[in-house]
Records
---
Amino acid sequence: MKSTIALFITVIFSCVSTYAQEESTITSAEITFNFESKDVNGSIAGFNSESKINLNDITQSKFKGSVSAETLKTGNFLRDWHLKGNKYFNVDKYPKIAFESTQVIEGKDGFTVIGTLTLKGVSKTMSIDFMKKESTLVGAATLFSSDFGITIKDEKADNEVSITMTLKLSP
């Protein structure tokens, strides 16, 4: 009887241990962007994540996180101040930029995360293409700032923003 209980406890702990190894979290992020028409590069920080990444079955993962709009930096103090103001990002009213996945699709060379990006109070569907490199996920996406009420130029194409993110995973 003792050996049966010991075997049962060993099996339970093995299952829990195996499950814990399958799931990873995002411990840090580096997010950069480029306003294509202006050739303005920048970064944004203040990252917070509630993501649960299943490395054994990426389609079962959940990506959920936000950044602080106040941390937007382009290397030009006056431009940053202007972008954070009411006309563009309005960081006092909309302090967070948030993303939550609705679907993860595994591909040949990586995976695509589809979800909802909320920026300046506007929520839109967005997809991010990721590749895994060791304990890091590298993602790329494109959006139009004008879709979120941030119009830099009159033509939609001139409001294109390329985003790159490097997400560090827990061991």
Note: The first strand starts at residue 23 and ends at 24.
---
Amino acid sequence: MNNSSNNNFIPIGKVVKPHGIRGELKFFLYNKDSNLLSLNINIWFKINNSFKSFDLLNLKGLGKIFRLDSVNNRNDAEMLRDKEFFVSRDDLPVLDEGNFYLNDIINFKLFNVKEEIGLILDVLLLPSANYILVNYNNKEILIPVLEKYIKFFDFDEKIVIMKNIEGFLNL
């Protein structure tokens, strides 16, 4: 188990509960289509305000149960119940030119063509679509990240320009 003070972690799922007596954990992924756990990467948990790394030893149950190093019995597993788990950004696969991870736009400014709308606070992966959570006039609003609303992403200026989103702003 390694300690790290690096805050470059991306939440990918949550432990639901222990499974059995050998330290296995039942979990769910925020992105059900993700294959990150099959890439032999470290799983990170925030424990006592510090990130700790665990090697993924086993994945079974149609990808819904895993076993981690240093988690050898139900008591160990119980300590991780309901905990969110993360991957390090450094462990993510390199993307092709022009592609990006959606969480890369967190803290970007959102514009509706020319007018600044607010700051992107978070990205939510919901069954119907991916959404951005935006601070708009000191209120949090959700806007779907769909092609019909996206004009472009500017990673140099850290802005997202969307179109036709007026209906989401009329609260």
Note: Residues 1-6 have pLDDT under 50 and may be disordered.
---
Amino acid sequence: MPPKLIRDSFGSASALTAIQPIMKSPLPGALVAVLVLTAACAAPPTPEVIPGMLLAPCPNTPNCVSTETTDTVHGMPPLTFSGSPEAAIETAREALLAEPRARLIEQRANYLHFEMRSRIFRFVDDVEIAIAPADSLLHFRSASRVGKGDMGVNRARMERFIARFRQLTNS
């Protein structure tokens, strides 16, 4: 059945005037809320780690940074640390907990997984830290769960993390 046309104030019928009552209803706002909540509740990805890598690779979208890639879109250098791997992972934990809306999801020897939520829409980003004890290197990955762009949020977050880590270790 075609949409019922409503005559506008000039006497002409249009489909646009037929949907105006719908647009004034709470339906569009509710639809937006459902979409935002669905995106914010996305399950954490379980990407396969490539042999020889400590963390999952970044997807082919610009909303991820990692120390285990060399391309200019995603790549960042790993951090070096002195002292024990246990001390380095604890310092990394402390530095990430200083981020707003950070939640520690998993901690194992030489590995941390955090969820970071955006302030307004509550989108979730995953941050992973992995220690390579033999090389005294700290690797990290920060990636958005949904979407393609992040307006530089993941890179900025990890730059703050690097500054905090260095400040806490005085290096």
Note: Residues 117 and 124 are 5 Å apart (CA to CA).
